[in-house]
Amino acid sequence: MTSQPPIRVLIADDQKVVRDGLAMLLGLLDGIEVVGTAVDGADAVRQALAAEPDIVLMDLNMPAVDGVEATRQLAERGCRARVVVLTTYSDDDWVFRALQAGARGFLTKDAGADVIQQAITTVAAGQAQLDPSVQRRLLEALAAGAKLGVAEPSQPAAVDDGLTSREVEVLVEIAEGHSNAEIATRLFVSEATVKTHINHLLAKTGCRDRAALVGYAYRTGRVTV
């Protein structure tokens, strides 16, 4: 048996006590390696581009360059690292801005070690992980018609993205918050088939993960209020 390499994590927080505490905590968790700590968003961008971590554990309210802008810069520069936000600021504006910028995880600082570890592992595997309260508010906002900073399309649905009818069904199930196992049960197919459809969806839509597919489903009218 060959062991998996550890998930390499960069911590970004302007408070030294928080940085040091997180570094100590993560250092005790199996499968995680802390490769650096950054004092603000600009420092996080510099270190992430140099060290190429798998995950940046990002605070939001930092001086000079905040976590949202740092996340946006990392995405624009093609950094391979995925961002997991860990912050005390969980109001809708911060949440939406962070997700728009490219964050794929969002936790509040009252999260326990097991929750942080799960989020790091899940996001490193290419999926999204949101605090349950954040996910609920996000879906409620989408259902209420929030645009999340994206222009409303002139037509309610896109018809030229090449999705098959089955792929559209899977997209709708994802947007409604169902897991792969639940989708498989509801559509009477195997989980392997669901994963294949999701891979096709990601390729055809240009989305990076499930969180992006949710937004795509609403923007193109596949899911409506």
From TrEMBL:
Top-level taxonomic group: Bacteria
The record ties this protein, via InterPro entries, to: CheY-like_superfamily, NreC/VraR/RcsB-like_REC, Sig_transdc_resp-reg_C-effctor, Sig_transdc_resp-reg_receiver, Tscrpt_reg_LuxR_C, WalR-like
Q: Which residues form the HTH luxR-type domain?
A: 156-221
User: Which controlled-vocabulary keywords does the entry list?
Assistant: DNA-binding, Phosphoprotein, Transcription, Transcription regulation
> Which residues in this protein are found as 4-aspartylphosphate?
59
The coiled-coil segments of this chain are: none
The Response regulatory domain covers 8-124
User: What is the protein name given in its UniProt record?
Assistant: Response regulator transcription factor
Species source reads Dactylosporangium salmoneum
Its ancestry begins with: Bacteria, Bacillati, Actinomycetota, Actinomycetes, Micromonosporales
